[in-house]
Amino acid sequence: MVPDTTNTVEQLLPERHPEHDLFICDVSDAVLKDLMAQMEHPFYSLSKKPEMTVRRYEDGRGNWIEVTPSFKGLATIYDKDILIYCISQIMHKIKRGEQVGRRVRINTYDLLVFTNRGTSGRDYLALQEALERIRGTTIKTNIRTGTEEQMDMFGLIEAASVRRKHGLDGRLLWCEIELSEWVFNAIKAQEVLTLHRDYFRLRKPMERRVYEIARKHCGRQSQWKIGLALLLKKSGSQSPEKKFRLMIRNLAKFDHLPDYHVNFDEEADMVIFTNRGTMVSSSRDAVVIWEGRLDPDVYHDARMAAPG
Hints:
Strand content: 15-25%
Distance between the termini: 28 Å
Strand order of the largest sheet: 1-5-11-10
Helix content: 25-40%
Structural class: alpha+beta
Number of helices: 11
């Protein structure tokens, strides 16, 4: 039986009127945020070619996901930039005590600049294709969000529409997205972690995915280790282990991952992430008025330090 979360969502919004439901993304300095579940599990394709196969993953702790692409292919880790942008904007508004909703309107130029992309006609076309892949990707999972455990089929977004200019260039002016209830509930439960701003400067899909895994599991700990075979599984990469090992060697050699140094112990076949100490609170956050709720990073770090 699918959990009924209608009342929960209704309580988050004052009234079901369009002017209350529509949230305009207009914050240029929002801190990058991503959902913990999306960082833990390989929802997205790391391939630049359309990935058409159904993928299923289990983490050994009772959690599993099955990801089914549409005929456009599985949503990619680059397509995920759109969701990171929405999540970051919504969390920024929540921290300021402002009203948010599942329906989000995005200025496409602002999105492209925020995610360190170009603004040519080709970039606008790629953005529309990304929306189509995100909308078409279906997830079946029992991943927990908030106080619920869902065993359901759902999408990352429920719907999307775009407004474009007339004429030859046909550039997108804005797009409107309705986030899925699963994503919105996770945001409201603050099941998010902060990403380094240079995340969008990582050009290789594997670099982004490895950073996400390190951010989720190493967090603010001084160090975290993982076997290469398990890291390959958690990454969702379709590469053979030999090729993946070479990619990790190169990642350790150039050591340009944000927030973490990367070392590869060849003898033990272990990847070691060491905190660079860059996740420091800003001066604005130095004085905090206690309001009875800790930052999600604190809860995450506590769980990592004392599981259970």
